[in-house]
Amino acid sequence: MHVSRWAWVLFGILVLSALALDLGFLRSRRDEERQLSLRAAAIRNGAWVALSLLFCLGVLAVYGRQAALTYLTAYVLEQSLSIDNVFVFVVIFSELRIPPAQQRSVLLWGVLSALVMRGLLIGAGLLLLNRFHWVVYPFGALIIFAAFRLLFGKQKQQELVAAACSICNTWVAKIIPITPQYHGGSFVVRQAERGGRLVATPLLVALIIVETTDIVFALDSVPAVLAITRDPFIVYTSNIFAMLGLRSLYFVLAGVIDRFRYLRVGLAAILIFFGARLLLGDILDVPTEVSLGVIALSLTLSVVASLRWPGPSARPA
What we know:
By secondary structure, this protein is mainly alpha-helical. Helices cover 76% and strands 3% of the residues. The chain has a two-stranded antiparallel ribbon with strand order 1-2. Strand 1 and strand 2 (197-200) form a beta hairpin. The radius of gyration is 20 Å and the shape is globular. The termini are far apart. The relative contact order is 0.16.
């Protein structure tokens, strides 16, 4: 798909304008934001989803049906896999005891830095695939490994997050002193009792861990979306729109994520499908419509199963 520079420019303007509107809204209603309700988070997440779908309509109008369908599939895939981020963010904030009001600040800067990091990883992945065809095999194996990590690594994941929090606390403390006190949404502050020295708040530790885990998630999700398309515009825009809605998605799902006990199974099935698609791409041409259907079916079945057979902790008393 030939994409002009103007398309990239317009996409950048759209993203920056939406971010400016969102951040301006946050600043103008700071006091209310601290009491962000589930309804407000759902509305904000819905706004990001609506913007993503409007962009899909723009792709349809300019580049045609197939390009729009490919973008939609890539976006839905990235949005689905970002649910795994929510699982880990819950563990991180619980382990570090980050209050809800400060979680928003951590996620904001985590998402903004992820926009740059995703671009670098996507560029590196496309460069490797275009120059070395055999890279599809380790990429496919990485996706399938991530699926088994989702299925069988929940307890291990919690242990790794706890270890990462401990290591990161020690590592940061070697560079800059850490205070256990929070200072609003600040990551570093100057303390008079320390002679005006800069000290880090627990939010800086949380931010470093969030950014590190996003790199790990990107190593799963970027190869998965490359199984759908290797068009840089489609891959990057779908990733960015999914990441922009991640902060709101977290506040929608954080309190109820444990009720969907089979959601990890659905996400693992999606990863296995796209890992196999990447590995078998030379001999099997899977239509984009089929890929979108697999994502929708896997998520639907996992949600229905979770509601039909809830775990003991999810059942009402």
